[in-house]
Design a protein that fits this description.
single chain; 62% helix; globular
Length: 148
Protein backbone atom coordinates (compact mmCIF):
# COMPACT_ATOMS: atom_id res chain seq x y z
CA UNK A 1 0.00 0.00 0.00
CA UNK A 2 1.35 3.42 -0.91
CA UNK A 3 1.51 6.13 1.74
CA UNK A 4 -1.36 8.62 1.81
CA UNK A 5 0.98 11.38 2.99
CA UNK A 6 4.61 11.86 1.94
CA UNK A 7 7.39 10.87 4.28
CA UNK A 8 10.11 13.33 5.17
CA UNK A 9 13.29 12.16 3.47
CA UNK A 10 16.37 13.50 5.26
CA UNK A 11 19.87 12.04 5.23
CA UNK A 12 20.15 9.06 7.52
CA UNK A 13 22.84 6.45 7.93
CA UNK A 14 22.58 2.85 9.03
CA UNK A 15 24.66 1.33 11.81
CA UNK A 16 27.24 0.18 9.24
CA UNK A 17 27.60 3.76 7.89
CA UNK A 18 25.59 3.38 4.66
CA UNK A 19 23.42 6.30 3.59
CA UNK A 20 19.75 5.23 3.63
CA UNK A 21 18.36 8.05 1.49
CA UNK A 22 19.68 8.45 -2.01
CA UNK A 23 21.22 11.78 -2.96
CA UNK A 24 18.70 13.88 -4.87
CA UNK A 25 15.65 12.43 -3.12
CA UNK A 26 16.39 14.25 0.15
CA UNK A 27 14.06 16.98 1.36
CA UNK A 28 15.36 20.45 2.07
CA UNK A 29 14.82 21.74 5.59
CA UNK A 30 11.93 23.92 4.37
CA UNK A 31 10.16 21.07 2.56
CA UNK A 32 10.69 18.84 5.61
CA UNK A 33 9.05 21.47 7.84
CA UNK A 34 6.07 21.61 5.45
CA UNK A 35 5.74 17.81 5.62
CA UNK A 36 6.01 17.82 9.42
CA UNK A 37 3.01 20.16 9.74
CA UNK A 38 -0.13 17.97 9.88
CA UNK A 39 -2.41 20.13 7.72
CA UNK A 40 -5.13 17.45 7.47
CA UNK A 41 -5.47 17.26 11.25
CA UNK A 42 -5.30 21.04 11.62
CA UNK A 43 -8.10 21.40 9.04
CA UNK A 44 -10.27 18.82 10.83
CA UNK A 45 -9.64 20.43 14.21
CA UNK A 46 -10.34 23.91 12.85
CA UNK A 47 -13.63 22.71 11.37
CA UNK A 48 -14.76 21.14 14.66
CA UNK A 49 -13.64 24.21 16.62
CA UNK A 50 -15.80 26.31 14.31
CA UNK A 51 -18.88 24.33 15.35
CA UNK A 52 -18.31 24.76 19.09
CA UNK A 53 -19.76 28.03 20.47
CA UNK A 54 -17.07 30.53 21.47
CA UNK A 55 -18.18 30.67 25.12
CA UNK A 56 -17.43 26.94 25.54
CA UNK A 57 -13.66 27.39 25.86
CA UNK A 58 -13.16 24.31 28.04
CA UNK A 59 -14.79 22.11 25.38
CA UNK A 60 -12.55 23.68 22.74
CA UNK A 61 -9.48 23.11 24.91
CA UNK A 62 -10.33 19.45 25.46
CA UNK A 63 -11.04 19.02 21.78
CA UNK A 64 -7.63 20.43 20.86
CA UNK A 65 -5.97 18.17 23.43
CA UNK A 66 -7.78 15.14 22.00
CA UNK A 67 -6.36 15.94 18.58
CA UNK A 68 -2.78 15.37 19.83
CA UNK A 69 -3.10 11.56 19.86
CA UNK A 70 -5.24 11.76 16.71
CA UNK A 71 -2.32 13.55 15.02
CA UNK A 72 0.09 10.79 16.04
CA UNK A 73 -2.29 8.07 14.87
CA UNK A 74 -2.96 9.84 11.57
CA UNK A 75 0.71 10.40 10.74
CA UNK A 76 1.52 6.81 11.71
CA UNK A 77 -1.24 5.56 9.41
CA UNK A 78 -0.87 8.02 6.55
CA UNK A 79 2.90 7.65 6.13
CA UNK A 80 2.89 3.86 6.53
CA UNK A 81 4.03 1.76 3.61
CA UNK A 82 3.69 -2.01 3.74
CA UNK A 83 7.42 -2.66 3.41
CA UNK A 84 8.66 0.10 5.74
CA UNK A 85 8.39 0.79 9.46
CA UNK A 86 6.46 3.70 10.93
CA UNK A 87 8.13 7.07 10.35
CA UNK A 88 8.65 7.68 14.08
CA UNK A 89 10.49 11.01 13.78
CA UNK A 90 7.80 12.42 11.49
CA UNK A 91 5.09 11.13 13.83
CA UNK A 92 6.75 12.81 16.83
CA UNK A 93 7.52 16.08 15.05
CA UNK A 94 4.06 16.34 13.46
CA UNK A 95 2.45 15.95 16.89
CA UNK A 96 4.75 18.67 18.24
CA UNK A 97 3.88 20.88 15.22
CA UNK A 98 0.16 20.43 15.96
CA UNK A 99 0.74 21.43 19.59
CA UNK A 100 2.64 24.54 18.48
CA UNK A 101 -0.16 25.43 16.05
CA UNK A 102 -2.70 24.98 18.85
CA UNK A 103 -0.98 27.36 21.26
CA UNK A 104 0.07 29.72 18.49
CA UNK A 105 -3.07 30.08 16.42
CA UNK A 106 -5.77 29.52 19.03
CA UNK A 107 -4.96 32.28 21.52
CA UNK A 108 -8.54 32.65 22.80
CA UNK A 109 -8.74 28.95 23.69
CA UNK A 110 -5.33 28.92 25.36
CA UNK A 111 -6.23 32.11 27.24
CA UNK A 112 -9.23 30.25 28.71
CA UNK A 113 -6.86 27.69 30.25
CA UNK A 114 -3.96 30.06 31.00
CA UNK A 115 -5.39 33.52 31.75
CA UNK A 116 -2.00 35.20 31.39
CA UNK A 117 -1.67 33.95 27.77
CA UNK A 118 -1.83 36.70 25.15
CA UNK A 119 -2.01 36.54 21.36
CA UNK A 120 1.56 37.84 20.86
CA UNK A 121 2.85 34.83 22.79
CA UNK A 122 1.29 32.61 20.17
CA UNK A 123 3.20 34.39 17.43
CA UNK A 124 6.43 33.72 19.29
CA UNK A 125 5.44 30.07 19.79
CA UNK A 126 4.83 29.67 16.04
CA UNK A 127 8.18 31.25 15.19
CA UNK A 128 10.02 29.10 17.72
CA UNK A 129 8.19 26.00 16.54
CA UNK A 130 9.45 26.48 13.01
CA UNK A 131 13.00 26.70 14.31
CA UNK A 132 12.63 23.87 16.82
CA UNK A 133 11.31 21.32 14.30
CA UNK A 134 14.65 20.75 12.53
CA UNK A 135 16.46 20.90 15.88
CA UNK A 136 14.08 18.26 17.23
CA UNK A 137 14.73 16.14 14.15
CA UNK A 138 18.45 16.30 14.85
CA UNK A 139 17.94 15.35 18.49
CA UNK A 140 15.67 12.44 17.58
CA UNK A 141 18.16 11.29 14.95
CA UNK A 142 20.98 11.44 17.53
CA UNK A 143 18.82 9.35 19.89
CA UNK A 144 18.46 6.73 17.18
CA UNK A 145 14.79 7.32 16.33
CA UNK A 146 14.32 5.99 12.79
CA UNK A 147 12.47 7.76 9.99
CA UNK A 148 12.89 5.83 6.73
Amino acid sequence: MAAIRPRVMLPETSEDGRKLVSVGSEDTVLSAIVKWIPVEVIAACQFVLGVIPKEHTSASLWLMASFLPITALWIGFATREHDRPIAWRQLTLATFAFFVWGIGAQAAIVHGAVPSWEAWMGSIALALGGVLLPIGDGILRALGVRQN
